[in-house]
Amino acid sequence: MNPRTRRRLERGIDRALFWLVLAGLLVFFLFPLAWMVLSSLKTNVQGMAYPPLWLFWPTVQNYVDVFAKNPFVSYLLNSTLIAVLAVGVGLLFGLPAAYTMARYQQRTLGFLFLMVRILPGIAFLVPLFVIYRQLGLINTIAGIALSHIIVVLPLVIWIMAGFFEDIPRELEEAAEIDGCTRVETFVRIVLPLSKPGIVASAILSFIASWNNFIFVLILGGKDTITLPMAVYSFVSFEDVNWGGLTAAATVITVPILILSLIVQRYLAGGLTMGAVKG
Amino acid sequence: MTLARRRAHRGFLAGAVDRHLAILFPLPALLLVGALALYPLIYTILLSTRSYDLGLRGYSFVGLDHYVTALTSDRFWDAFARTFWFTLLSVAGSIALGLVMALILNREFRGARWARTAFLMPMVATPVATSLVWMMMFNPTLGVLNYLLSLVGLPPSVWVADPRLVIPSLVLVDIWHFAPFAMLILLAGLRSLPPEPFESAVMDGASRWQMFWRITLPLLRPMLVVVLIFRTIDSLKVFDIIWVITAGGPGFSSETLYVFAYNQAFKYLDLGYGSAVIVVFTAIVAGASVVWIRARERAWA
Q1: Residue A276 within any structural domain of the chain
Q2: Residues A140, A57: one domain?
Q3: Cβ–Cβ < 8 Å for A91, A160
Q4: Of A42, B201, B218, B257, which residue is least crowded by CB atoms under 10 Å?
Q5: How far off is chain B from A25, nearest CA to CA, in Å?
Q6: Residue A147: inside a domain, yes or no?
Q7: Would you tell me which residues 29-48 of chain A have a C-beta closer than 8 angstroms to some C-beta of chain B?
């Protein structure tokens, strides 16, 4: 074989291998999600067919049933309310902390919040369970939202500390020379400049709260059924209704996927608590 | 208004707030973390020395008895071993797969951005929801995975119903969820590598394979360590996936430390003993994270 045909052959193999691996990876990562949506559009009979059906006349009956036979709207509201409350408090308390952490390099503080992210949720849950029972916070939206702050606060603080570090100090110094107090500087200069970061950390922590399961599993009750709890209980008290199950799973997942598209750019930094930028 | 006069207009309070900003700003967050995390953590440690089950059997001091019971019980050590294997397999699998994904996406091709978006979806999808989908796919008689196996001529598997296969099957779900996380960080790492070493290697006639092992991988080390830290911590703490798909079964064959702790504290409501197990488990997670964080500091230095 002469070197030129050999080079061309190698390049061909290289390219074929590249597309093959890419296709394989896409199938592996997208298949479960695609199968979820596909199964949600099948009737119960079609869902139980073996071999599984790939082509069929889709039905939205499962979605209608999910909302008609269950108070799914109230589950949706519970999840949203809990996440909004937790994120709101998380931002209110987290933003100032993130600011001084970035400006004064408060490493111990950073380590403390990092440990809250690192330790398993169950490390805090026995006492919370005991205290919540005494205070009547079990099975209340406020109680669940309060517990989700443990999840939200470290996320907000670490993401925002990264953002605040990138704001040029000269801007703040200029504001102070103009007579702003440092609190005013923070509110009028730093916060408006960090809007993209605030949006990113709000969305990422919203997702974290929305997806959370163990806090509501232990501290929740029938008045605080969030979407993950609702879908989880689908398996226990109905015999496997795969159509309904996957329709409910789709309803939970789709809003999150859409939200995550908005913050794609910040995912790496957000999920590594600022260990990676970009 | 002149600067001096504006300064004078600031009240005494504003001046005091400014001077103590470093304490006052983080204080609300610190109080919250103190109340919701630090205090419960200490409370858990105290509870672990007591016998306590919400009032049924009283509240007596038992010292380190619970720890002795846990550390001498087979069920604890079985859970420990399972957690170890689960973490090892999941961390290795997700980093290897994530690295392949990152190398693929680091090339320029049409649709690269779409592929990246597609890869990121499992990572943010609600674990409870996707676990139920996996449970459905694992179904031994009607599940699509056995059908796919039959297409390529492989015998059907019972997946999570087999005590020997349940951990690898759950690892598969965990890898599906979190290999994209590894990809995301390693891709950021690949894009930040300096081009010079690669250019001179090409001049020297190095093959792709050589360049990967001799240049890419060593340069990527700091990022690999970051991924290793986060994947280890997160795999040690996997609960949702296991609880939804098997709840620790069949038997106890997928009961990891997290599930074991949950069962003791919240299924059997043995809060004292449960707390002791939680303390041991938390110490393992904290210990692992400190080891990795130290390693990271060395890698970055």
Answers
A1: no
A2: no
A3: no
A4: B218
A5: 8
A6: yes
A7: 29-30, 32-33, 35-36, 39, 48
